[in-house]
TrEMBL record:
Name assigned to this protein: Phage late control gene D protein
Source organism: Buttiauxella ferragutiae ATCC 51602
Amino acid sequence: MNNVNPSLPTFSLVAEDKNITQEVAKYLTDLTLTDYGATGDDPQSDKLTINLVSPTMMLPSKGAKLKLAIGFDEFLVEKGTFVVDSVSLQGPPRAITISALAVPSSNTLHPYNMQSQKTRSWENVSIGEIVRTIAAENGLLSSISPELNNLMPGHLDQLYENDAEFLAKLARQYNAISKATGGYQVFMVQGTGRSASGNPLPEVTVTPSGRTYWQFAHRSKASTPSKTAAGNGGTLLVPYIDAQTGEHKVLRHGSGMPEIPSGFTQPSRQAAEAFIRSRQQDAERVAANTSQTKSKPEPDYLISMSITQPATPELLALTPESTVTTEGFDPQADCNWVVDNVAFFLSPYEGMLVSIELKK
């Protein structure tokens, strides 16, 4: 890795076994990969968003599989397989936005099976049995913390819930994480520092550079997440970097209070606009399912930090639950953290940026 040139960001994109990297690179304005982690109240699939400007490029079909790797020079890190969820056009010029959601790479069943609503009950079965059963139904292997495997949660009802939501709700009861990734259904105690295959997650030290933007928050009182993120009132604040001046700016969406920052700093105004469109699409999916029972949101983390800066080869392996040590920011902010979620932004104009949300 010492010979990798961090000023030469690159990517690889394979669509249904056809390498389309060169074609996409020719028209690319920006590419965003977001790994949402597995501790949220409303589980979200990891997301790939690609923005292009092309007068002729054919649109991928909904359901097409995209395999992504990102990196620098000749060094690439595999980031998984994504299924095209939506494609939109606008112009002039003819601009294309492709949104794709992550699916477990070895899922042999329909990639949206985890999202199908089910109603059933679980009686006198351990957490391990529940997770293994759901994993097998979805064509996955299972990875379960030993301390959770034999616990008996008692009678459980899965009412109009998909498997991802049901397992996420169960995980919150045991301070655990639940996520389908890389061919596994993971159900682990938070902070174990290990991947689905049992390998240690990366531990990295992050220091500020001339292009680092960071925020540190130490709240004395937990706050309730706003509905703004789903587009239901209030004002969503999306920070972004002006491609012409390099200044940090904010794009406002909605009106009134509360004003809620999105967290990630987008690499351009166009990426900020695409982020807002993506949130609107997510809100429409939620609104379409009004019969689903919503559980009470968990409080936000009392101590949190967000960092956006140029990516490096060492940072490419970061995933939720990885350990980050911050140095050189502020005496209060310099400490050990756990990654909550992480996003990578790649554009021909800005290079590659990484945005990390950290928690204590």
